[in-house]
Amino acid sequence: MRRTSLFVLSGLLLAGIVLAFTLQGMLNAHSQTAQSRLSADAYLYYTLETANGFVLARALKGANGAPQGLPQTLLAFGDSFGQVASDSVASIQLSPDGDYLVIDGIRDHGEQVWVYDTQYNTIALQPPYVMGNFLHWMSGGNGHTFLYRPMLPLGPQAPMDGNSWNPGLWLVNAATGTHVNIDIHVPSAALVDAASSPDGTRIVYSTSLGLGLGSDVWLMNSDGNQQTHLFSSANTDGMRSIIGLFAWSSDGTQIAYERLVDSSTPFLPAGLWVMSSSGSQQRYLAETDGGHGYWPVWSPDNTKLAYIVRTNVGYRSADMLAQSLQSAIGIVDVRSGHTWLAATPQQTGMQLNLNPTWAATSASVTFTALNPINARVGGTPRYWQASVTGQSRPPAVTPISPVIPHVIAVG
Fold first, then answer.
1. Are 113 and 150 within 8 A, CB to CB?
2. pLDDT of the residue at 28
3. What is the signed CA dihedral for 17, 363, 382, 310, rounded to 10 degrees?
4. Residue 198 has pLDDT above 90, yes or no
5. Is the pLDDT of residue 42 over 50?
6. pLDDT score of 2 more than 60
């Protein structure tokens, strides 16, 4: 499940603050033999709220994508993370090889990434001594390298490139915290988003030099060579936008992305678009929630996208206050452009309907429904399932898990 992050632009800094939630699982320590290791997607991971701060937990994942039982605690984050009301988690994502979990933590002094070793039940800040945020896992390669936007060094032990601090886009090894710096010819603060192709050979990324200046989209080889400018973000009507939240189709032929209005007004609706992997054939598909960092999710057959729709656009309180937000799960048929709502607040009785995950058949989505998270006690999400029929009326939705207490974020 995704949740994900990072798309509200404040000046040059873009902080995708994602409302995240629920569960995690039943697992004790680590498995020391290859025979006892479970598959990469055998668990659902969560950050939970406790009286002593945030803890990492997990639960076994059932065939329907919901947890089998309540999440069980693995370990505490330490460093007092979660003891301040402003602490939160932007995203939780498992590496392609299943050996590492990244937890992008937000604190009052900035973002840092925790890396959990799923086999040895240990956790550490990676890369160390740097403030910055996780973007996406890289496909291919060693299976546990991620794309990272470094923002500031933290002390004299911060990793440098030579003797200076002039980072661009980092490829970070989750096992060691070491990195390779790719020069993107702008400061790292100008990097909006980056995502690798399914085969790991290419990276699409976007940059912005400031509020009101729009953004530019680029494509390069995964080693940083052959950087190609695809397009700038001015729409046909001259409106500029910030482009990000890239999602490649599994066959590598299409890239979905979002355009957020380049404005100082937060959380305006965004546009969901799709283009070919070379940047051509750009098409608008739907209006989405803007600025909260919800990635669009391709169906396994690459014919549809699930996305988040804000259902109370125009309710000004929700522009600034997360407690007032309402959202639904939207579906779009990529070829025809036909859109419909698969799960709404009216159906679930919850304000927020988030984290869509497709069934292997592309016929249904599993998602979480909850009211906004309370910073002191966490949230209480519940897993639901919705059929994806394309009918004009909303399809039936069915709860498939009990309510999960004390959830801060779900992975």
1. no
2. 32
3. 40
4. yes
5. yes
6. no
What are the DSSP calls for 300-369, one per residue?
TTSSEEEEEEES-TT-THHHH-GGG--EEEEEEETTT--EEEEE-HHHHS-SEEEEEEE-TTSSEEEEEE
* Omega of the bond leading into 127 within 30 degrees of 0 (cis): yes
- What residues are paired with 399 via a beta bridge? 384
Helix, strand, coil % over all residues of the chain, rounded to 5:
5, 45, 50
Pairing of strands 88-94, 327-333: unpaired
Q: Are 291 and 266 in contact (CB under 8 A)?
A: yes
Integer angstrom CA distances of residue 72 from 3, 131, 404, 410: 21, 29, 11, 13
173: Cβ contacts below 8 Å, ≥ 6 apart: 142, 144, 145, 179
Q: What are phi and psi of 190, to 5 degrees?
A: -85, -5
pLDDT digits (tens, 9 = 90+) for 161-182: 767 888 999 999 999 999 999 9
Distance CA 231, CA 218 (A): 7
E-strand stretches of 200-252? 202-207, 216-221, 228-232, 241-248
Q: Are 398 and 376 contacting, i.e. CB atoms less than 8 angstroms apart?
A: no
Nearest-angstrom CA–CA distance, 258 and 290: 8
**Residue 302 reports pLDDT greater than 60:** yes
In whole angstroms, give the CA distance from residue 44 to residue 53: 20
d(CA 80, CA 94): 23
Q: Quick one: tokens of 58?
A: 């997990």
Which domains are assigned to the chain? 9-410 (2.130.10.10)
d(CA 358, CA 367): 9
- List, in order, residues 6 or more apart from 51 with CB less than 8 Å away: none
Cα 169 from chain centre: 17
Q: By C-alpha distance, which of 164, 197, 368, 184 is closest to 279?
A: 197
What would the pLDDT profile of 272-284 be if each residue is shown by its tens digit? 999 999 999 999 9
The Cα–Cα gap between 165 and 151 comes to: 10
CA 110 to CA 133: how far, in whole Å? 9
- Sign of the four-CA dihedral 281, 287, 290, 293: negative
